[in-house]
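Bit of a strange request maybe. I'm writing a small parser for structure token strings and I need a real example to test against, not something I typed by hand. Could someone generate the tokens for this chain?
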Amino acid sequence: MKFDINMKFDQRAIEREINREVNSAMQGIARALNRRFSEIARTAEGRDLESVKSDVSRAFRSEGADVSDPELTEYAQHLIEGTSISFTPGRLHA
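Reply from user aminoacidic:
Good idea to test on real output. This should exercise your parser:
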């Protein structure tokens, strides 16, 4: 037996739902990175650059991000200098 099924989807509704899920995930990642960077910042001052870079790298990797060595150096240097770092996600719109 063969059945032909004709289905129609509301493309805009699907896009809105995908965007809602992506935005939620990005907010979660930003919150997690903010927590990790706050933890790193509490101990970064006075530590050597490579040690802090290692912590920063682990923080990004734990959230699935791949960050270049120059970026890691910049983040680590800012943390060592006492600069506060905060991540705010952008938003997707349908």
